[in-house]
Amino acid sequence: MKNYLLLLCCWLAMTVSAQTTIEPNLKWGKPTQQELTMTEYAADKDADAVELFRDVNVYYAFINGDFRVINDVKCRLKVLKPEGKHVADGEILIWRNSSNDTHEVVRALKATAYNLENGKVVKTKMESSSVHEEELDTNDKLLKFSVPQVRVGTVIEYEYRLESDYYYQLRDWYAQSDIPVLYTRYSVSIPEWLSFHIEESGMNTLEKQTDSNSLTVGEEHVNTEEHIFIGRNLPALKDDDYVWRAEDYGSKVTHELQGIYIPGYVHKNYSSTWKDIDERLEKDDEFGGRIKKSSPLKDDILAAGIPQIADSRERFEAIWKMLTKRVRWNGSYAFWAKSGNKVLKEGTGTNADINFLLINMLHDAGIESSPVVLRLRNRGRLPLSHASMKYLSTFVVAVELNDSTTAYFDSSAQDGYLNVLPAVLSVDRARIIRKDHTSDWVNLQNMALATERSFIQATLTADGQLSGTLSRALDGEAAAAVRKRWRTAKDSADVIHDMQEDKSIEISDYRLQGRYDFSPRLRETIQFTKQCTTAGDIIYLNPLVIPPITKNPFTAETRNLPIELPYKQRTTLNVTLTLPDGWQLEETPKPIILRLDGITASIMYQQKDNQLTVLYKENVSRTFFTQQQYQDMKALLDKQVESCKNIVTLTKKTPQ
Question: Are 616 and 549 in contact (CB under 8 A)?
């Protein structure tokens, strides 16, 4: 009997395993029974869909006397939950250059939905009416398609060929997506006449192979080298809070052209360093040439006497105020810009448009300044190993002050100041392009800091009513955040209402000093009341009155991505509480000190007579934390939130 039970358990275990694990099916056009019947993905049971198979084969062809790059793409997907039906909608980005007729074309796009109905496989092919193009700009467009008859349980297959004239620019390949990947393969075959720097990066290691072959070019046979990358059981790479661009950390393959070497015809090196990019920008009339010019507002600057202002910060402020009266930011970031006269005439422009004007105006006012080129944080980090102009997306302005320091500014900083940039621009890797050819790397995150110093003076009555004043001194990014909140609010009453809800107080008077100032500082004063919980001769009181942190933003049990904070933060809260006569604290809370590499938090208590003072401090000195540090950070914040919610008990003193 025991042997029978043992065999039964083994059989059940094997049956369950067979139902929950799945092997890659590399045969195209033939979904397996296992693929059709699977109801969940064992490696990620919360997944709403899974990529079962994807094959991208990139190779060169010689057509009409020129190279073309062919991308053959095949993909099979499985819908597991209603939310997973989004995988039925696909997009293909198509490049084109209207100035020289260089373009790409998609051919042989096919898609099929496979469904099990009454035990039989029903195939539904996509019609041409489900395919359409969408113009993005003069150079790019999207080919969109939607696979029909997709529901929970559907297996989708689609394939297409992308032919490209851009033989010198291969697309980056991303092994991961926002759903888990069972199996993916990427191969790129490159003729020996073209030299590319090929780099694999990411948190998951890919299998790598190389092979050799040949390509017929006219009457010649050109050797080719094939690079193959295979990924198996890759987790979903989903955008998460506190990460700017998830793709930066996913497994991927990037390519950068280093040279073209055709024997007897062409021998040209394209390999670049960031120093080469610096020199190219310096020599470019539309970039380096722009930063040496005077501004169209030079006469106005001289007439206003701005060059005679001794303090360079005040001189900068005068220039900026003059510029903001003439132009406003249109909400877009750019690298190249229109002429200064055109921007002034239109009265609006991108940050690049306005930044070039600012550099020229500062030059006229006797202030040295330089562009600092960068890649927006939501587009990824600048690579160190291979330099290319294609990675640059905008620039900010470095301003040389008369105290021998360099400050940074951008015209999109509507609520900021020197060294107070929008978080999307606060990158750790940017290039300062100086006129004296001393360009170098700069970390813009070093100066980004949100500082908040708060003081609460409050009095507690015997019926549990707290009344007092909250005074906040805000600097840097903290001041900019408050200014933005007021600037973007539909109604000031909404701001006050949200503040009352967030802080659990009733506001009787609110004052904000410096709201419209061009300054790194802001002062806020709030008169408030707050009702504490009472029960007979007991008052329950949170000694922080208005806790600085009430919830942990990190609630997931695990995290696959690092944590990227917008900027460093420093918070101090001093509370002085006057307790009602005839009442006493049951127990003074013990001090709390929390530490993690890059984060410290503490709460100190002191009581003297009928006064309770509390000092809260938090210092976040780093902006980047690895996924391996997530559990420690989550635990620290849990303790921090718990400590900020601590309640003390006051009881009525017994008459002597």
Answer: no
Q: Which amino acid is at 417?
A: Y
Residue 369, classed as helix, strand or coil, is strand
Please name the residues in contact with 447: beta carbons below 8 A apart, sequence gap of 6 or more: 407, 408, 419
CA–CA distance, 551 with 643 (Å, rounded to integer): 11
Given the structure tokens 């035990």, which residue do they identify? 119
Tokens describing residue 608: 């003297």
Contact 301, 325 (CB under 8 A): no
Chain-centroid distance of CA 484 in Å reads: 19
What is the mean pLDDT for each group of 10 consecutive residues in the chain (656 residues)?
44 43 89 94 94 96 85 97 95 81 89 94 94 84 94 96 91 93 96 90 91 86 94 88 89 90 77 88 91 93 96 95 96 94 96 97 96 94 84 95 90 95 95 88 94 97 95 97 94 93 95 95 96 93 95 90 94 96 88 96 94 97 94 96 94 79
What number of H helices and E strands is found in the chain? 10, 36
Residues 251/237, Cβ–Cβ less than 8 Å: no
Query: If you write DSSP's letter for every residue of 631-654 in order, what string do you get?
Result: HHHHHHHHHHHHHHT--EEEEEPP
pTM over 0.90: no
Query: Do residues 579 and 617 touch, judged by C-beta distance below 8 A?
Result: no
DSSP string, 154-189: -EEEEEEEEEES-TT-PPPEES--SS-EEEEEEEEE
Task: Give the C-alpha distances (Å, rounded to integers) separating 437 from 254, 284, 440, 653.
Answer: 30, 14, 9, 75
Nearest to 630, CA basis, from 578, 566, 552, 577 = 552
Encoded amino acid at 556, one letter:
A
